[in-house]
Amino acid sequence: MSQLNPYQMLGGEAGVQALAAAFYRAMDRLPEAQGIRAMHGASLELIQAKLAAYLSGWLGGPLVYVERFGPMCLSRAHQPYEIGDAERDQWLLCMHAALEEIGAPLPLREPLRQAFHRLASALRTVEG
C-alpha cells in the first residue's frame, strides 16, 4: 500500500485549485497582507491560475505549470520585486490562512508550513 503525496492528500487538482483561490482571497482580505497585494495587478485571476499550476507539480501532482506556461525559474520570476522578511511573512500568513480555510488535513499542515517557509525564504530579494 503506497502513501499519498501532498497533492493527493489535498484532493488533487480540485484541492490545489481551492488552495490557490483561498490564498488570494486571504491576500485580498487581510490588512496585514496589503504590502504583497500591492505587488499584484487589480485582477488576480491569471496569477491564481499560475499559482495553482505551480503548486500542482510542487506538491507531487502533474506538472501543469510547464504544460500551460512553459519552463519557469521561480526565483527569476520574483527578482523584479523587493521581497524581504516582511513580504515573506505576509505571503506565509496568506498561505497559512488558505490551508486553514480549505481544511487541509492536519498531518499535512505543519510539513507544508515548513516547506512553504523554506520556499518563501529562498525567494527573498533583499535583506531584512
Automatic annotation (TrEMBL):
Q: Which SUPFAM superfamilies match?
A: Globin-like
Output the PANTHER family linked to this UniProt entry. TWO-ON-TWO HEMOGLOBIN-3
Q: Which keywords annotate this record?
A: Heme, Iron, Metal-binding, Transport
The answer to whether UniProt assigns keyword Heme to this entry is yes
Q: What molecular function terms (GO) are annotated for this protein?
A: heme binding; metal ion binding; oxygen binding; oxygen carrier activity
Record keywords: Metal-binding included? yes
Q: Which family does it belong to?
A: Belongs to the truncated hemoglobin family. Group II subfamily.
Q: Which InterPro entries match?
A: GlbO/GLB3-like, Globin-like_sf, Globin/Proto, Hemoglobin_trunc
Protein name, UniProt field:
Globin
Species lineage, top-down? Bacteria, Pseudomonadati, Pseudomonadota, Gammaproteobacteria, Nevskiales
